[in-house]
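REVIEWER CHECKLIST
Item 1: Sequence provided? yes
Item 2: Single chain? yes
Item 3: Sequence as submitted:
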Amino acid sequence: MTEILFLVEEDVDGGYTARALDEAIFTQGETIDELKNMVRDAVLCHFDQNVCPDHIRLQFIREEVLAV
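Item 4: Structure as written out by the authors:
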């Protein structure tokens, strides 16, 4: 595996959540920098060293609601 993709969303209570696609990995952080560190740590804990992905991709999802 060369890459793993995480979907990142702002949490309604503040901070951010990250959920991996195709793997059972979920983590959160109060800031973007904290979230990046938490994602790295979660990936390293989830995979054996010989099958760990080379890259982690974060895809930020932003939702806006407009009043009519």
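Item 5: Key structural point noted by reviewer: The CA atoms of residues 4 and 18 lie 12 Å apart.
Item 6: Recommendation: ____
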